[in-house]
Amino acid sequence: MSTSEELEVEKQRAEGSRVAFDFLKWLLAHGIVFRQCQENSDAISSYLREKNLDFTLPNATEAYNALVKRGHKFVLETLAPPAPVEKEEEPLPEVPGMNPQIFTVSDINAMDKDRYKKLYFGSSATQFRARVNEIIRRAKEEK
Fold this sequence. Notes:
- This protein has 2 domains: 3-69, no CATH class; 86-143, no CATH class.
- By secondary structure, it is mostly helical.
- The chain contains 6 helices and no strands.
- Helix 2 packs across helix 3 (57-69) and helix 5 (113-121) crosses helix 6 (125-142).
C-alpha cells in the first residue's frame, strides 16, 4: 500500500472515530445510555449498508431511530443507581430582632431561658417557633 493510500485509510479511521464520538454525545444529550457492543455496532453498520449511507452523525442517528422503531434494544439492561442529589435546604425562617441567630439544636438548648421565653411569646413568636421547628425537623432528618 502506498503512503497516500495509508494516509487516506488513516483519515477515514479518524473520521469514523470522530463520528462515533459525536454519536455517543448525541445519545447522552438525549438521555440515552447506549450499550457499546459488537451487536449494536453491527446493527448500525448493517442499516447503513442496507440504505447505502455513509457513516455520518445524521445517518447514524437515522439508523438508531429506525432500528429502535424495529424493536432493536440499544440501552443497557441495568443502569448504575443514580448518584444521590444533594438537595439545597431552604434558609431558616428569619426572626426579627433575634441576634445572635440560632442554627442548631445545641444553639436552642444553650439559649438563656428568659431570652427563649421572650422570643417564644413575643411579637415575633410565629417566626421564632417556625425557625425552632425547622431546626428540630432537620436534626431528626439527619439521624
